[in-house]
Amino acid sequence: MSFTTRGFAGRRRGPDDQLPPGQTLFENWPVLTAGPTPYVDTETWDFAILDETGTEHHWNWEQFLALGAEDITVDIHCVTHWSKLDMAWRGVSLDKLFENVETSHDYVMAHSYGGYTTNVPLEDLLDGKAWIATEAEGAPLDAEHGGPARLLIPHLYFWKSAKWIRGLVLQERDEPGFWEQNGYHLHGDPWTEERYW
Ligand SMILES: Nc1nc2c(c(=O)[nH]1)N[C@H]1C(S)=C(S)[C@@H](COP(=O)(O)O)O[C@H]1N2
Ligand SMILES: [Mo]
């Protein structure tokens, strides 16, 4: 008799449960960038959160790392139908960056070095759901994958995980970022296939 049924052992981990509808399992990790790769130096790196009072909360690379990074294992899902499961990442939780930010706004526009933007509801960034990642698979992020630091929002399609992240602007209203202006869904939940709008 087997006790490893779902009800007894809890949620089974495996592609059947981890792959959202319409996704295909990938072992390799494609590079998907609109435009050239910006090369960002940690010496001059600056990350900012801009709130509605006009206050800019800034972190240089050292201040950012001093917040404390954590290791997480998550799946990523690209709207172009590839998924990569159980990836080891390291990053600083957005909860730490928002600790001293007071806002009544519900939306965020993420801005990258190089000009890429993507919009995210604030609630999708908080409560352990998102990170600014510096490492993947045990190594510093390659420039092609967004190094030195990128957003990581694994529960949304991967276009929301802005590479070369530079800052977050709090907004009263949701507005489309780069891909969203080009037809991608404003929110991007892979489990309900929020691909296009
Ligand atoms: N700055 C920036 N971030 C970006 C993109 C981009 O073109 N520029 N592409 C997005 C898309 S569509 C995807 S699928 C992922 C790809 O990340 P990867 O190249 O590390 O696989 O980054 C997202 N973040
Ligand atoms: Mo993508």
How would you sum up this structure, described in words?
The chain has 197 residues and is mainly β. The chain has 5 helices and 11 strands. Strands 1, 4, 5, 8, 9 and 10 form a 6-stranded mixed beta sheet that branches. It has a 5-stranded mixed beta sheet with strand order 3-2-11-6-7. The relative contact order is 0.19. The N terminus is likely disordered. The structure holds ligand MTE and molybdenum atom (MO).
- Distance from first to last alpha carbon: 48 Å
Overall outline: globular
Number of strands: 11
Unreliable stretches:
1-9
Estimated radius of gyration: 17 Å
Main pleated-sheet profile: 6 strands, mixed
Q: Give the helix proportion (percent range).
A: 10-25%
Q: Could you state the order of secondary-structure elements as H and E?
A: HHEEEHEEHEEEEEEH
Work out the helix count.
5
- Helix/strand-derived category reads mainly beta
Provide a concise account of the structure shown.
This protein has helices at 6-9, 15-18, 61-66, 94-97, 178-181, and strands at 24-25, 46-50, 56-60, 70-77, 82-93, 107-112, 117-121, 131-136, 139-140, 150-152, 165-171. The protein starts with 5 loop residues before the first helix and ends in a 16-residue tail after the last helix.
